Records
---
Amino acid sequence: MKIKAPVTKNDRIDVTITDLTYQGMGVAKVDDFPLFIENALPGEKITILVTKVAKSYGFARALSWQSESADRVTDVDKTYRQTGIAPLQHLAYPAQLKFKQHQIAELFKKNHQEVEVAPTLGMDNPTQYRNKAQVPVRMIKGQLETGFYRQHSHDLIPLTDFYIQDPAIDEAIIKVRDLLRQFEIPAYNEISDKGVIRNIMVRRGYYSHEMMIVLISRTQKLPSQAQLVDQIQKALPEVKSIVLNVNAKKTNVIMGNVTRTLYGKPTIEDTLMGLTFAISARSFYQVNPQQTEKLYQMAIDKAGLTGEETVIDAYCGIGTISLALAKHAKQVLGVDVVAEAIEDAKVNAQKNHLANVTFAVAKAETQMAQWQEDGVKPDVVVVDPPRKGLAESLIDSTAEMGPKKVVYVSCNPATLVRDVARFEELGYAIDGPIQPVDQFPQTPHVESVTVLVKK
Ligand SMILES: C[S@@+](CC[C@H](N)C(=O)[O-])C[C@H]1O[C@@H](n2cnc3c(N)ncnc32)[C@H](O)[C@@H]1O
């Protein structure tokens, strides 16, 4: 598709930034044609020099501009900008929160719908919040390095301070890196498809401080494996689980299907909402525990349970929302497609002495249709899908079952807008303001809770 661009290379033009991309690039429009501008913030009026026009894809890039904005953070670390770990670092935190609120309202507006969006619930300290790190490992000049990829590439930039991660996790990465160097275990090489260690994943319980180290390897066994595991335990007393994940494929997918516990338990534990959760290497667990408690409390409050309800928790992961809801409902049915997550969810129900929860391993869209066929009549349905949002068939079977309320926890406002439109076609309407919760400070990711009620 060739698009006629209203700008050409080397044009110097005045624009207003209206949006940000997920990489934190400012977006301005000239006759509906998008221009992507490094480091620019929404609301800024600037003069730009167009550096690239890609007519077939319908965008242009621009650099070379100057502007002053009260919301600009000037002491931005260039390394973080290069990696894209914190693409909104150049925007002051209160402005980040406003941007996220505005982003949801704007996406609905583009779909011809005015919605009320409450101010984004933010953090007191919007750095060092992540309870999980997943870092690539590469050889650079003959030495094993850990860090993060340069944006839009697989070039590793060595890093020791990851800015948005729990600092105890940063320290653990350095210690594991040093031990891998000491035992001369080579990093994986994507081009030759040789070498051993591809990635290191570290998870640390926010309350429990239990730590899990996952070594993701091309090979079934690591060189000097027993000594390495022994030394990791000694160097990191918080470690309760060391896991080997084997990924022998030439792929961008981080984890493979084989997971073996090399030391301790296959899971670590943490608490959330006063409940205890076992978390295994491949299970989803929210990365910002402080904000997750706010998010889940909001979902529970909005569900408005009295203790008599049947609730479905679709995309339930290890059962975090399901168990928090189970304390206030008659029964909860949860579904997730990852078998390990559902195993964790069942253990978690027992750990917390909650017998009114049942979990199924399936695609949520398939299980929803099954529950509908089985005559399940939920009073409330909670959905917390991945970024791609809900399958249309799931929305259809939900509406057929006719719950009074749907509580939609979304990590992508674009798919939220699409899915809400489908619910509205089927007789549901948004009730009250949409509530954004900042799960990912310093990044443009937007999490929110929306309530839909049956008209
Ligand atoms: C955003 S997470 C939410 C998990 C959980 N509610 C929580 O907060 O910890 C999305 C979950 O959807 C699961 N998932 C992805 N696609 C799915 C599908 N088609 N059917 C069921 N679960 C799916 C993932 O395994 C993941 O656990």
Note: The mean pLDDT is 92.
---
Amino acid sequence: MESSTSPAVVRPHEPSHIYTNNNGYDASVQQEIPRTLTAAHSHSLHAAESDDDNDFDDIFDDDYHNDDGLGPDGEPDLARNYNRQRPLHSNQQKPAANTFNSVDDQISALSKHAAKIRLDDVKDGQTRDKDKADRATSEQVLDQRTRMILYQMINRGVVSEVHGAISTGKEANVYGAVAYEDDLTKVQRAVKVYKTAILSFKDRERYITGEHRFKAGADKGNNRKMVKLWAEKEFRNLRRIHAAGIACPEPIQLKLHVLVMGFLGDRRGWAYPRLRDANIPAEEAEQTWSGLYIQLLGIMRRLYQVCKLVHADLSEYNILYHNKQLYVIDVSQSVEHDHPRSLEFLRMDIKNTGDFFRRQGVDTLTDRVVFDFVIAPGGPVEEPGLKESIEQLYASRAISATDDKAVAEQEVDNEVFRQQYIPQTLEQVYDIEKDAERIGHGEGDKLVYRNLLADQVVLPKTADEHVSEEDESDEGAALDSEDESDEGSDDESKFAKGPPRGKRFEDKDEKKVSAEINVILFFIIPHSHLPFSFKST
Ligand SMILES: Nc1ncnc2c1ncn2[C@@H]1O[C@H](COP(=O)(O)OP(=O)(O)OP(=O)(O)O)[C@@H](O)[C@H]1O
Ligand SMILES: [Mg+2]
């Protein structure tokens, strides 16, 4: 919104604000600041919401933005979180003139780092195809705001130099960087810069809508906010995945649309190849590819069970490979498993990765078997149990991979499974009575959601759970009222020790399917028919 074009109409005998009972001073009046002040800096008090490339307020406003909500011990820092919300609830005005001055000062102070961003320093062959490499130089030009964020990070030692792009894409560029740990040891880092001028975000809304962590939703009208939300989502997901011990880049720092993470590559700054480009010697190809396939199934299950996430864009392009190890990257679109479309996304991930491994000649399991393996509530989530379970799945297959007819049947099953409708909430179950009848007749394993029917049906809540649920809802309410997303409200460190998030963490409006379906089926089906959980032994 523009500030008033007429000079401020505040007369000496009138207060410069209107006080409303219970509502404090009306901020709209505060916007009427002298035109000279706004003109001098070409931004209004609402500049943070504009797309002005020269607006740096949110970059220097540290209390508010450079904060993940966690204290040094990884636990939520309640005092800081409270303080972060204060500007929204307080009547205090920013001392506008001083803020502007200090921004100017900071810009000139930070500009001394300009020479440390050397984007022409691209490693030969690092960008994968020649056209892309040629385009890289022009595409990787950084806007003023991004530069300023990087200068600030350099100033704080998060990185000490930023080099050429490792990858330039539609939505983000990834740059190589170096930092000095303990002021001595040189380490490589990767800096992912989301592009703020992109239009393809409308497609991404489906990943955010329905996420309880992003209840405020996406503000489609504001690219900058949208991109910030996206970077935040990647940072939080990375933190959760990393804490669970799944190989991925270590999340290091996030500032608006700039994410600094650990570098997956060698010490000289060469990034590991994508799985698609993995160079596996022919003599060990067969064994290595099947080993990697099994490793990936384990990763998908751990992601789902321990991190409560579905990657939602898992393919040979978003997995890096080194030395028989897979690294999961690009998790900005990953969703919580209670997202209304998470099972659809999971099925897509299974298809894409399965197709890739089939092309490498791996004898893969059917999509349905993998799907069940990933979502089955019982069974191991750690090695070596995971691998053993997969071996059992192979062993219990009725068919042999060398049998042409059996392979054809497998393909048909995959096709059928991919078309099958997956209900995710009770409302979506097409005909609950019919399904219940099938279960009663011992045909429950034909239901695509059978693994959501835990053998432990919903038990009455313990007193503990009641209390925790209230805590969570209080916190949620406070953060929902905030314009920002609920950054920091969710302590990711709890995912380090297995799956402690019980039903209390589920979104209240989108109650988890399994619970709902179970409750109903519990009453209409003999209990002895219920268990369908994946058996590991
Ligand atoms: N931590 C990292 N270490 C090394 N290389 C990385 C790292 N993160 C990303 N890369 C490289 O950058 C490439 C792009 O990263 P990523 O997949 O996260 O971006 P993206 O969202 O797919 O971007 P776009 O969709 O715009 O192409 C990866 O294929 C990988 O080669
Ligand atoms: Mg990618």
Note: The mean pLDDT is 71.
---
Amino acid sequence: MCSCSRGSGRMLCYVVSKVSAAAQGYFHDDFLKHFVCKVSRRAPLINRGYYVRWKAVDHCLKQFFHATQSCSRRQILSLGAGFDSLYFRLHAEGALGGVTVFEVDFPEVARRKAALINSNTCLKDMLPDRETVSNQQTNAVFIRSGHYNLIGVDVRKEQEVEVTLSGAGLQWDAPTLVLSEVVLTYMETQWSDAVIGWAAKLLPQSVFVMYEQIHPDDPFGRVMQNHFLKLNSTIHALKQYPDTVTGLCLPQGWEKCVCLDMNQFYFDLLLEDERQRVEGLEPFDEFEVRKPP
Ligand SMILES: C[S@@+](CC[C@H](N)C(=O)[O-])C[C@H]1O[C@@H](n2cnc3c(N)ncnc32)[C@H](O)[C@@H]1O
């Protein structure tokens, strides 16, 4: 997990795993289940991994909400949002406090998500003022509503991104949390560098939270690499930036970059009570853990 700051400041399988962790009580999200056909139960180790990922992203979101609470205009820009339920669960928690959420994914993914939302009473009732807009020129698909916007655009295409997001109402000078959770590493590094660069350039008051794999050569890293090899899918950034993504962010215009591996997050930032709660949910005998020194 890495966050950079400036100024003052195989898609469905991911959802299925998040739904599994939520169903086992690792975290609370009543909306993820609306984005899958069937709720399946994953192995305890996978549930716990998804919990730590979810908790780390949530931690960054809550820090951002706290740091910007006095600002009247605040935004979350989620790049490669897929079928994540972020807006709906934060809205239900009452945590958004006027923050506007912009979710971006490829047009075909955004179109499927828009169709899903429009056909689901629970989800569409949470967007009473929504309109579905289709931009013929850029092939972008929108759901546009007061505090939720779903946009179909390839994030590698900077000019299209700028035009489309401006059209959707993104305010480039407002405090913004840019989120990319397991997205950039699927791109060749010239493209992930470019995305990180346009975000730094276009959003002068922002923090970029990214969650990606590091340490390809530890036992877990090797399992993951073999898995992606079988899927014929390369994890590009991992080759070039195996330990941290500091080298990825700073040359692209970010002023500061902090990287945390998930063991550090689990042991250093979670309270003992919360760790005990989680470890009591589905005890398992063996797991490898690299405690921070
Ligand atoms: C592994 S999924 C993660 C989804 C979501 N961030 C989550 O954590 O649940 C990666 C997502 O990134 C999207 N994506 C990858 N490259 C993209 C690009 N160039 N432009 C827009 N979306 C992209 C994919 O379509 C997919 O929905």
Note: The mean pLDDT is 88.
